[in-house]
Amino acid sequence: MKFEKIITYIFCLFFQLLLSQTTTIPPTLNATGNQIYNPQTNINIATSFTITPGTNTGEIAVYFQISEGYDFDIDILRLENPNSFPDIESNWSNLEGKLTLSHKTPGTIIPYSKIEDLVLDVIFNSSDTNPSSDKKISISVGDANYLPSTGHYYEYVPSSGITWSDAKAAAESRTYFGLKGYLATLRSEEEATLCGEQAKGAGWIGASDERSEGTWEWVTGPEGIIHFWEGTGLSGGPVNGEYSNWNDPREPNQSGNEDYAHITYNLGPGTVGEWNDLSNTGSLNPSSNYYPQGYAVEYGGSPGDPVLNISDVVELTIPRILSASTVKDICGSGSATLNATTNSIDSQNGVEVQWWDSLINGTLIATGNSFNTPVLNSTTIFYAVPVKNDGINIYNSFAIRTPFEVKVYEKPILNVIPEIEQENTIFNLDDLKDDLSANSANELFEFYELGPTPGSFGTKITDPTNYIFTGSSTNNEKNIIAVVTNKFSFGLTPACNEIAMIKLRVGACDIPTTFLSRDVAVCETSTDPLGGGQDGFETFDKTIFSDTEADLITAE
Predict the structure, then answer these.
(1) What does pTM read for this prediction?
(2) Which class for 385: exposed (0-12), middle (13-18), buried (19 or more C-beta within 10 A)?
(3) Which of 298, 409, 433, 514 has the fewest C-beta atoms lying within 10 Å of its C-beta?
(4) What topology does CATH give the domain 319-409?
């Protein structure tokens, strides 16, 4: 019994020793370097970098990739001082946006201490004066590409003529530092772009509508089956808010039992990373763009996967104006305060705003996030550009300048109008426009009754052409308010206007000579005015004059 226990104990020790010798503990990378990047300059991507060794003391290579925001043919990573590393081979892949540093003697291990020095010497440059995207750069000691937004790793595996089903099996047999592989499920633009940049030919991905025609699903990932598209070509569309990147507008077109998706290759500008549907074999013609050349593998997210720190990420942020008061309004003349909010990170990675008087070249007139203009008498445009400020230097920039317009509206200049008197009670207030202002063609006129307190506004006069004076038997005068507004400022708050008080007066009414009169010739009841007991007086029926009286009251 003791002998059996000893044998068992020895076997366990041997197994643990064997396990300890075959299990490789990966290193841990730690990079610092979130910085503001001034376009068209060189910048070291990391301000500090360390490697904590695992089992090994070095690696065959170190990899750098612009994993998010890469601009093909514009961005580049390279060593700043290659002569300081004469034994290091530098290889830049413009297609992938990836820099590989390895020993010039193939297979030779680079010590971690030298890798730390190499990382600190790598610089980034963009030839674009106005980059549209911030840059995320992954640093890794493994050759698969790390994507910060997912925390997963991706690689393109060349395999000429491989079928989709064989590619699925092959991907699932691969591992990466203990992470299980599977045909890539590209559920975001970042994933699709990264894998598209890696692909060196038509490459299979983990999408299929084999289970139900037209119902496209991700079928390979640890998330399980994900329905992301329904239908074919123009009649199809994404579902459940899922991302898709089919080669528009025809795909997927189901052109002959095409139940599997692949990344397209060499189909023309703008198609990098787009998808197409093919049969399980794809084209059988090796010269065709639809002949399978490999497959995209994704690592990460599977149950039991280890936590890896073999990659870290630094970010270069493009100076940017995040929000701005780009239009200010002034009535007459005056000064305006222009404000811009920037994407500063910290005091060493700040973004300052320069204010210029011209879109190109011109004179720098102020620096700062707020700018008080001089007194302006006409509409003027100023131009702002965000630049890097590291606490010591404010860098120049050739980025596109943002226009800030200060609109100056001409304030109405009103004439002094004496009281308006006319011999009737109906006023056409529109006739006063030219008397009020010499610039009436470019102005809007509104008239109001006086309010209950002196100078206050009352009811708006809705029909200025037919304003009826409503005085009293003891008052033939009243004041109204005219508001004259620059028509180009109408709707602004406040509008550019001027106010005038106008006195209306109703004077005596002259009866026109053309007024129709009535003769009433009934005075006597007898030819003998004093005879027959008559006194010479006669009573008239007043109703016969009622129409005439009304016409006189409203006479014009």
Answers:
(1) 0.70
(2) buried
(3) 514
(4) Immunoglobulin-like (2.60.40)
